Amino acid sequence: MDIQAKIEEIVSKIKADPAIAAQFSKEPVKTLEGLIGINLPDDQINALVNGIKAKLTLDQAGDMLGNLKKLF
């Protein structure tokens, strides 16, 4: 499994659907397992959850910086 590609795919799904985003923020492991359709070992699923959270945070920070640039 290409982890980086999977993270990108899941981040896109989370960003596109507010219901999935809300569910992910409440129950990230359960949501992720539902999205990928596989029950992974805890260490693997937690690594994916952390990667997705990091990507979402980076994307949000980038969006905020873009909005700040528009002000100037």
Quick overview:
Helices cover 86% and strands 0% of the residues. The protein has 72 residues and is mainly alpha-helical. Helix 1 packs across helix 2 and helix 3 crosses helix 4.
What does this structure look like?
This protein has helices spanning 3-16, 18-26, 28-36, 42-71. The model has no long low-confidence stretch (mean pLDDT 80). It is 86% helix and 0% strand. The longest helix is centred in the last third of the chain and has 30 residues, at 42-71. It has four helices and no strands. The protein is mainly α and 72 residues long. Helix 1 (3-16) packs across helix 4 and helix 2 (18-26) packs across helix 3.
**General shape:** globular
Structural class: mainly alpha
Oligomer: single chain
Rg calculated over all Cα atoms: 14 Å
- What's the count of strands? 0
Average pLDDT level: 80
Biggest β-sheet strands, sense, barrel: none
Provide the descriptors you would attach to this structure in a database record:
single chain; 72 residues; mainly alpha
List the topology elements.
Elements: H1 3-16, H2 18-26, H3 28-36, H4 42-71
